[in-house]
Task: inverse folding
């Protein structure tokens, strides 16, 4: 296992290939890919072994990041990279032009075919930019993408002073509490759930990598919607992945309440622009 991990890490550092494997492409009700083995088995095992522990803020129910638990700008993220070769290798791939190239291979044709799209796949290029959360969403009470600041670009009405083809990456960790955790934290606290929603309109593509198994008894599936109707309910498993075209106005998805034990763990990788990519920046993105 160590030899395989070192070989893969070196290949990623040297710009060879991609760590991600996509096994099934869907075009309805919107473009998305899924995989039951998104990463090499040994590489995934190393990532799972080093997956960061639950932050105190999440454990006590005082998380200010909404559904997210750890972001790139947090000290916990720096600690993870300092102690895990596997996560360092993935970080170097994700925060690089290779992540842009991968997303354009997956979704470039769909972006080109959308007459409203402001991102030209042939001109897309990587910029290294961090997001910080600064504003509460009045609908949910949580800090969300609506208050993201990226240099001069801010709030849902983005200042259109940059190049929409300059794309940056955000990798966030999630520790979604199960029903047992929610009860232990404080009376009345709800387990992890996320109603039908769209990603923020400045997201170009999203990739979810799961580190928790779900089944009919635990809930916490990923639901793909066709309008207001559930089109598919995908029981996620460890080392499964879903990637979808975020700016598509049809890309509604959600998560029913996770009632399993412990935490529903995943990593979300999102490719983003400073502009709203294909949709009105003020359109609704969340339905309770």
Result:
């Amino acid at each position: 296992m160590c030899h395989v991990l070192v070989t893969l890490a070196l290949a990623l550092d040297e710009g060879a290939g991609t760590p991600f494997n996509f096994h099934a492409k869907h075009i309805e009700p919107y473009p998305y890919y899924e995989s039951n083995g998104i990463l090499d088995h040994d590489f995934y095992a190393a990532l799972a072994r080093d997956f960061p522990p639950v932050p105190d803020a999440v454990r006590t129910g005082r998380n200010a990041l909404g559904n997210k638990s750890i972001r790139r700008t947090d000290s916990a993220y720096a600690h993870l990279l300092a102690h895990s070769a596997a996560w360092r290798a993935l970080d170097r791939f994700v925060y690089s032009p290779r992540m842009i190239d991968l997303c354009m291979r997956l979704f470039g044709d769909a972006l080109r075919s959308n007459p409203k799209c402001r991102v030209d796949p042939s001109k897309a290029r990587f910029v290294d930019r961090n997001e910080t959360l600064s504003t509460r969403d009045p609908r949910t009470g949580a800090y969300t993408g609506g208050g993201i600041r990226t240099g001069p670009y801010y709030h849902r009405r983005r200042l259109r002073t940059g190049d929409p083809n300059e794309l940056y990456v955000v990798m966030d960790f999630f520790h979604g509490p199960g029903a047992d955790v929610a009860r232990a934290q404080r009376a009345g606290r709800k387990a992890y759930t996320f109603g039908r929603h769209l990603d923020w309109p400045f997201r170009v593509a999203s990739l979810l990598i799961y580190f928790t198994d779900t089944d009919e008894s635990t809930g916490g599936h990923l639901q793909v919607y066709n309008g207001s109707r559930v089109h598919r309910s995908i029981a996620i498993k460890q080392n499964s992945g879903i990637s979808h075209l975020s700016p598509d106005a049809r890309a509604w998805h959600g998560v029913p309440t996770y009632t399993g034990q412990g935490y529903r763990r995943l990593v979300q990788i999102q490719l983003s622009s400073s502009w709203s990519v294909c949709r009105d920046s003020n359109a609704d993105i969340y339905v309770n």
Notes: The CA atoms of residues 37 and 240 lie 5 Å apart. The radius of gyration is 18 Å. Residues 1-14, 134-159 have pLDDT under 50 and may be disordered.
